[in-house]
Amino acid sequence: MRTYLDHLTVERGLSANTLTSYRRDLDRYVTTLTAGGVADLGSVTPGHVVGYVVALRGGDADHPPLSAASAARAASAVRGLHRFAVREGLVADDVSRDVRPPVPPRRLPKALDVSDVERLLAAAGEASALEVRDRALLEFLYGTGARISEAVGAAVDDLDLDEGTALLHGKGGRTRLVPMGGYACTALRAYLTGARIELAAAGRGTPRVFLNARGGPLSRQSAWTILRRTAGRAGLPVEGPRAVSPHTLRHSYATHLLDGGADVRVVQELLGHASVTTTQVYTLVTVERLREVYATAHPRAR
Fold first, then answer.
1. I need a labelling partner for 80 at 20 to 30 A (CA). Which of 56, 191, 205, 276 fits?
2. Distance from first CA to last CA of the chain, Å, rounded?
3. How far apart are CA 55 and CA 71, in angstroms?
4. Per-residue pLDDT tens for 215-235?
């Protein structure tokens, strides 16, 4: 298993969070096999794999039932392990080949209305260095569609405010150059020439754009807290199914681009999606909005 995880790290370039999830899933798989008297991968049968996948959804004394999405991820980790074992000549057959993982329900991304985004950004304030930072962070997230990890990982040299572009470092070591709007550039320029200098004085020096109160790099958790706190100040939901989350501005960015007429392939490139299929879920959001407008505006809709 360790060799497989090393392969995912070096050859596939999976993120640290994904690797942590895969390691946890595979540890559970190996523990289940061992408890069933299976000592090595060569002794695993299709029945073992099927039984494990079924158990993921049902849970057991030590593990609560997993959602369809989490069970699908765990099943993917197991199938990947068996395929890897075959390619490496460790076993003769892939016993997981015909095992199908649970299919997660297709969920539409949550997106804010443009007016709600404007309320959120306005609520960040500009009265202190931290508020200027918060405003710059939120403008950056909405202005580029960056993932929260891409935002907190951005370096000052990744920004070109004169050209209005940002270099984002995405999943799997992939990078992409994306445009930034005038609002994002203005907020970042105000932050970099004032508030960041003030915050950096308390630290030991870091190239990261967004800093915490001690002058160190802002963490993903802190960025989430900033978003949640600002959303509450703006009167937006912070609890329940419609709560503003770290991905909310990214979802809103994509949805508003498509609503404005952007081609789905362009949005795919801007978001850094490897497949256009991932991006196409946003088109469902815009179709739903079109249906709502049609239902209320067309005289023969009912």
1. 276
2. 59
3. 9
4. 999 999 999 999 999 999 999
Q: Which range, of 13-17, 96-100, 264-268, averages the lowest pLDDT?
A: 13-17
Please confirm, yes or no, whether 273 is among the known catalytic residues: yes
Verify whether residue 250 is a known catalytic residue: yes
pTM of the model: 0.64
φ and ψ at 105, to 5 degrees?
A: -65, 145
Q: Which of 147, 208, 251, 256 is catalytic?
A: 147
171 is catalytic: yes
Fold adopted by 2-87: DNA polymerase; domain 1 (1.10.150)
Residue 247 annotated in active site: yes
pLDDT at residue 274, rounded to an integer: 74
| Annotated catalytic residue within 23, 169, 171, 176 | 171
159-160 and 175-179 strand pairing: unpaired
Q: Tell me which residue has tokens 């970099």.
A: 192
Q: Which CATH number fits domain 114-243: 2.40.37.10, 1.10.443.10, 2.60.120.10, 3.40.50.261?
A: 1.10.443.10
